[in-house]
Write a structure and sequence with these properties.
Layout lengths: L2 H22 L32 H4 L5 H8 L1
Length: 74
């Protein structure tokens, strides 16, 4: 077998194993994105707090207008 094909098959098997493990532990929704910023073999999880909250000010706790509201109410 060509070494390149073997490496690609290994990569595919690693992804399938990762997805199988996640679903077996109860993860019901999975969105997979690749990134050059994450080291090979590492994964990052983002938890979904509602329909469009991943990375939002509500999900991160960094509300851009929170301080303004406190200042105005004093």
């Amino acid at each position: 077998m060509d070494n390149r094909i073997g490496n690609e098959t290994d990569n595919i098997n690693a992804i399938v194993n990762m997805l199988d493990t996640m679903t077996q532990t109860g993860v019901s929704r999975i969105k997979v994105e690749t990134s050059g910023e994450v080291m090979e073999g590492d994964i990052q999880k983002a938890y979904h707090h509602g329909r469009c909250d991943v990375g939002s000010p509500f999900a991160t706790g960094k509300l851009f207008d929170l301080e303004e509201d406190r200042v105005k109410s004093k």
